[in-house]
Amino acid sequence: MELFANQVLAGIATGAIYACMALAVVMIYQAIDHLNFAQGEMAMFSTFVSWQLMQWGVPYWGAFVLTVAFSFVAGIIIERLLFKPLAKAPILTNVAGFIALYAIINSVAGLIWDFTIKQYPTPFGSSPFLGSQLISTHQAGMIGITLLMLLLLFFFFRFTRVGLAMRAAASLPESARLVGINTSWMIALGWGMASAIGSIAGMMIAPVVFLEPNMMLGVLIYGFAAAVLGGLSSPFGAVMGGFLVGIFENLVGTYIPGVGNELKLPIALALIIVVLVVKPAGLFGRAIVKRV
Amino acid sequence: MTAMLNVKDLRAYYGQVQALHGLSFSLNEGSLTTLLGANGAGKTTTLRAICNMVRSTGAIEFEGKPIGTRSTENVVRLGIAHVPQGRGTFTNMTVEENLQLGAISRSDKGAIGSDIERMYEHFPVLKQRYTQQAGTLSGGEQQMLAVARALMLRPRLMLLDEPSFGLAPLIVRDLFRILGKINREEKVTILVVEQNAQLALELADQAYVIETGRIVMSGNAKDIANNEDVRKSYLGY
């Protein structure tokens, strides 16, 4: 029983990271109808930036805030330079753009910081959380930060005018323009926010997977799995999907003999396929009701 | 009376296909004008061209300022509200959020709440449903919501694209009565595109008839309604 509770809690902790990545993916998907394959690399680059800042002597939380701000601006710049010109291009052109971005960021990070694995600090420590052996303080911190961020996002989208405008621009761009919303900038803002959310995910997971240019590949695939499981049309679903994938991964790895660490990733991919076959809109995806 | 909107030699294109062939017309401030014509005559295209939602050439002036090169959202921000064909309702948002969105480009945030109350007075049915998802409203209710959303901009000019489309005759009458009231009481200049010529001519004071992208007739709405030749050849009733 102790093992079960332990695995579920650990699953929720890593699931929190998947939830962040899924949320970032869904935000961009809602804005431009494409999956951002470079989301993980953007997060990895941001994490390196925070590491560099700490190497220069900036304290953890200072580096954290600066990195989130940097990622927000960088996300907007990437959208303006690369994806705004591609807005009306065919889907394959966009896919090529994402893959190019992936390769560029990955190589540039390797060039600047090389490919050796680096230790990354945790601000929460790694002692047992509240004296219990179930999860560590870092895992608890990961869950806490994620939940706080989700809460802030919920309030932003639900109760602010900019949040409302962003939702309008994502759901019906033409109608949004007809009420005076600059939809192009709303997309850029979505990129900035997705990039900032990704950077938080990167900084939270880095102490677990260690810092190196390929650290986010697996995480991003889990993030995609989570987004598909929850439904690409639903930010809430993406978050729930993240937690479910995290728990699922841990339980399968623990209780199904022979799965172990090596087969966890293929199982996440199998999950994507099964969900797409059985319920294409995802668990929480909205079946759109229309009346004419 | 001064012209609020002046359109000269408007030509519009969908790809290689030309949809408007040099349209010229003007709207007087405070007027209620209708643009009539059969399917495919270019009515919708004319409205879309005013809001720069289709490639067009020619001169469009609003209150003396050329607006032909402005982006759609910047045309709207001048006070031109456009109720598009199909209503453009944000179906997955609540009625109240739809109204909030209508006012999203306004800077006087304090007055938005009282404007929403005013919309509920014009359209009581919306008040009963303000927390409901807009997609669950009936067609008539969605059209009321679309008009209310446009009014939340506090527009100087309102463009309506076939507001009667798909609605029961009784609801159309109700809607047109409200449009007349808005035109008189709130001094909103209105341009309404219609296929339901009879009803539109009753409501409007000015009318233009277009056919295959050209204006073939213009004048006082009553005169056009009384002219049997025009009715038979262009309006079909």
From TrEMBL, chain B:
**Statement: the UniProt record of this protein carries the keyword Lipid metabolism:** no
Record's keyword annotation contains Nucleotide-binding: yes
Q: Which CDD domains match?
A: ABC_TM1139_LivF_branched
User: Which SUPFAM superfamilies would you find in this protein's record?
Assistant: P-loop containing nucleoside triphosphate hydrolases
Extract the GO molecular function terms from the UniProt entry.
ATP binding; ATP hydrolysis activity; branched-chain amino acid transmembrane transporter activity
Domain named ABC transporter: residues? 5-237
Any Pfam family the entry gives:
ABC_tran
Q: Which GO terms describe its biological process?
A: L-amino acid transport
Keywords from the UniProt entry? Amino-acid transport, ATP-binding, Nucleotide-binding, Transport
Its domain of life reads Bacteria
**Family per record:** Belongs to the ABC transporter superfamily.
Query: What is the protein name stated in its UniProt record?
Result: Amino acid/amide ABC transporter ATP-binding protein 2 (HAAT family)
